[in-house]
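Entry 14: structure prediction run for Orphan protein. Input pasted below.
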Amino acid sequence: MQLSRRGWNNVLIFAILAMMLIFQYSGKKVNGDDTANLYQSALPASAVVLSMQFDHIQIQRVGSQLATKPELGLSQPQLQQIIKAWESATFKPVAKDVVIANLAYGINVSFELANLAEPVTLILYQIESGYLLQNWQSQLLQIDEAELQVLLPR
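Run finished. Output tokens:
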């Protein structure tokens, strides 16, 4: 059986398309798996924070503005930065085989989210090498001091 010139062109086109699909899928698989294992979100995806409570400090939305109780003297851009940081925060998970002692004493950070009826509570732990955060899926995530400074009102 002999293929015409047009037939061979079609074979080449389909072979190239098949190779492009294989390369594109394999690239997504490799890249997607690596990023999925590296970082986990602190809050659910596309979370919109209505209020946040941490250690007797509360940040809440009042109309289009943010307010703190008690008043901390933070500007609107500073408060918005804190809330945006929490909404998009992702951290590296702690390896499953690592055993961390003394996680009995943690600080609760509670959030009311626009898309959830129940509040979400995260737990912040201080350990020898820095901080850990138990996220909304009960995963332990590593946080360094610089990240913590952005996330908490001071």
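Notes: Residues 39-151 form one domain. Will compare against the previous run tomorrow.
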